[in-house]
Batch of 4 targets.
Target 1
Amino acid sequence: MSDPSRRTALKAAAAAATLAVVGFPNLARSQTRMFTLPPLPYADSALAPVISANTLGFHYGKHHKTYVDNLNNLVKGTAHEGATLEKIVADSAGKADQAGMFNNAAQIWNHTFYWNSLKPKGGGKPSGKLAAMIDSDLGGYDNFRKEFAATTVSQFGSGWGWLVVEGGKLKVVKTGNAEVPFTKGQKPLLTIDVWEHAYYLDYQNKRADYVNALIDQLLNWDFAAENLAKA
Ligand code: MN
């Protein structure tokens, strides 16, 4: 074992074995198209103090991840295997016998959309086309701000508040549980999660404080503008 060339050979063999082990799951994933937890667009402390690192860590690392793990188990051996996330959501929506499939797929989609709907030092008034549409469709920024907060806060139980485009106009809507606007012909621009896990560690029962803080300090209007351009 003290022979340097033998040590080098052993090291090379170990490195090759590591590569093979690392490489195999990647290959398997690409063949079966398993879903993966998309990376957060920022550090889990980046939205503090509006959303604490503790809340973000649990929300992303436990809740969002669990939906990914659940869906990977659920799609195995079904007609959904190999389909895109959006197709699974669309195809399982409204089908009682596929509620688990829909809930987990839609919640993966919703959470990825939610992380992107927020950014550090966001919030406030948008500019450009969005500002003009808020004026023409929603009665100006101050009205939008009130309506988005009121609609989102009033979602009974778990769900989501949304800014969407429908028929070329901006609209504020809410959905319950895992429901998504895009199965109803509405194109989402921004969302706020009002499941209790999104705010209870930081705001307890004060859902309105959480929603208003997101609107004023975290909304990512750049993401909304990208979605509007694709709508
Ligand atoms: Mn959530």
Target 2
Amino acid sequence: MERTIHGWTGNTRVADKTVYVLNGPNLNLLGTREPHIYGHDTLDDIAARLVARGAQLGLGIDLRQSNHEGHLVDWLHEAHFEGAHAVLLNAGAYTHTSIALHDAIKAISVPVIEVHLSDPETREPFRHISYVGMAAIQCVKGLGPDSYVVALEAAAKL
Ligand code: DQA
């Protein structure tokens, strides 16, 4: 696994297919952020798990995090133009607000799987709407860091 400017990559030199794993605001603070909701694993831990599982599934991993909505839109476009196999998207709070992310997912042909550590539908009412979910092909949520691994396994079957 290699550190990049925005996150981590792994297996990309050996695997034919790459899965983009895009993470939105505040997910850089995983590990210390509300651990009773999100657990103690850091994004670094999650990246390591995905790279290891990706190696078994023949998938490269390009995991990134940004607190800025436009970066996520740009990376969805990039995944499309680079011919990514799939995108796993945990858009954090932008899930519940961003028509720009909804439109970006609709605009690209790469399949996008929505991911959440928690289950937003069992939390505050403002988390019950998901603009990402209205455009994504599938959602994996509520499993803590395992949500990412289960989503990667679903991506492998696409
Ligand atoms: C989250 C759920 C969102 O409601 C919240 O804003 C997050 C994290 C999750 O992974 O459970 O930032 O996407």
Target 3
Amino acid sequence: MPANSLVVVMMGSKSDWDVMRQADEVLTKFGIPHECRVLSAHRTPKETAEYVSGAEARGVEVIIAAAGGAAHLAGVCAAHTILPVLGVPMESASLKGLDSLLSTVQMPAGIPVGTLAIGPAGARNAALLAVAILATSRPDLRKKLHDFRAEQSAKVLKETL
Ligand code: RP5
């Protein structure tokens, strides 16, 4: 695993990767050292706890955790670290991600998870929020975020129908 990752992107299953690759792409676009891992709150509980418990000491600053269904991954991560944890609910086959959303967002007071939207918008926004958190102490990143927003606005304003 890279020694210098500032952000880790975790997901409960490789089946989440098609969506979570969008978080990976945003972090790459902003030049953020990061790593992506499949780890499950239920299928690999011990390894998940160990990985998250060691993240702060090796310099990680933000954790993104995506899961679907009984989506406990972000909450379990938050239980094992004081780093900011951003949860991304995956769309599920049975309940379209409402199960994932509620499982991720309804944390007990004292162990926060910042929960994003279900699916691709959540994946992209989790990465953008991670960049914004890092940017509070990094002026170069702050400028990149301003530029990103300006480009996004310009693109919308250029739309023709
Ligand atoms: C969750 O269960 C994963 O995050 C995934 O969204 C969902 C289904 O996983 P698979 O059965 O496709 O591995 O743990």
Target 4
Amino acid sequence: MKTIVSASILSADLCDLRSELIRTEKSGAEYVHFDVMDGVFVNNISYGIPVLKCVRKATDMFLDVHLMITEPHRYIKEFAESGADMITFHTEAGSDVSDTIKLIRSFGKKAGIAIKPGTPVSEVYKFAGDVDMILVMTVEPGFGGQGFIPETEEKIRALRSFCDSKGIELDIQVDGGINAETSRRVREDGANVLVAGSYLFKAPDMAAAVKAMRE
Ligand code: DX5
Ligand code: ZN
């Protein structure tokens, strides 16, 4: 499976987002990862719809929107119409999972579901055939720059082997504490969409850092 690098702009210089997006495009990353936090589902507030619209105008890159918000079904339409290419929401966030997947698809967008480190991966098996991607969080959602939780590797391996056994081709995304070293581990576990924020935006050479994540 092709490795896709998704750059989380949570760690970008947000006062200079346009240059940061240009830097991201030139780095060779495929996706821009856009983290939405509502201060309820997670203990932090990031940015939302108006900023997504600006990002959409500033870049043609694939916009991978990660919703860390309560009852995400309430805002799918707005995020879809504001430029998201894929919308990923948490199964723990209080919306009906199947209905929310259908809602995302009704706008012609790719659909993903996410689980926190404490949620058993077996809870998402029943949706694996209905989504484009499953995000296995490798830190507690809410903040950039945290350390990778090694116990999440077992969940990635279990999900990949479940999908293989059922003949399901699925993108498995990881998010949190991803750098060159943890990238190699999670790729071996079966993840193929790698989100990185602080590792990429704090790197002296972002293109070299993206390359290191694939090696
Ligand atoms: C955390 C966010 C991540 C965050 C990752 O809740 O979902 O996307 O930006 O940051 P790093 O790569 O610094 O761990
Ligand atoms: Zn994220």
